[in-house]
């Protein structure tokens, strides 16, 4: 009789362990997302933006901290005052300060 009791106890223990394993939440691993296509830019990353030839959209896209209004202000200044003679001339435009100029100095050129 003791062996019957022992076997039923072992059966109950194994059954509860089996149920615990089945009911446990599964660990989901993060899937690595691979981009389907990469955007190819028209210019290489090392190319500089010409202040005298770039349009407002190019200025806005390529320069840090330059939005639509500042890009249009740069183009309007160029149209009103002629071609830029130096990169520092950007400081004459309202809304462009020394910090913004220094952030973008490596990306700018005057031709």
Automatic annotation (TrEMBL):
Keyword RNA-binding: no
Signal peptide bounds: 1-23
Domain of life: Bacteria
SUPFAM superfamilies: RuvA domain 2-like
GO cellular component: type II protein secretion system complex
One BP annotation, GO: protein secretion by the type II secretion system
Alphabetical list of InterPro entries matching this protein: Competence_ComEA_HhH, Endo/Exo/Phosphatase_dom_1, RuvA_2-like
Keywords: DNA-binding, Signal
GO molecular function, one term: DNA binding
Xref: PANTHER family: ENDONUCLEASE/EXONUCLEASE/PHOSPHATASE FAMILY DOMAIN-CONTAINING PROTEIN 1, ENDONUCLEASE_EXONUCLEASE_PHOSPHATASE FAMILY DOMAIN-CONTAINING PROTEIN 1
NCBIfam families with a match to the protein in the record: competence protein ComEA helix-hairpin-helix repeat region
Protein name, per record: ComEA family DNA-binding protein
Naturally occurring in which organism (per UniProt): Pseudomonas brassicacearum
């Amino acid at each position: 009789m003791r062996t019957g009791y022992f076997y039923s106890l072992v059966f109950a223990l194994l059954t509860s362990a089996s149920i615990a394993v089945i009911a446990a939440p599964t660990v989901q691993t993060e899937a690595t997302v691979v981009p389907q296509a990469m955007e190819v830019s028209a210019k290489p990353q090392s190319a500089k933006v010409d202040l005298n030839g770039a349009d407002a959209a190019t200025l806005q896209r390529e320069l840090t901290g330059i939005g639509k209004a500042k890009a249009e202000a740069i183009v309007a200044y160029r149209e009103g005052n002629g071609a830029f003679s130096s990169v520092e001339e950007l400081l004459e435009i309202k809304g462009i300060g020394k910090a913004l100029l220094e952030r973008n100095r490596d990306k700018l050129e005057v031709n």
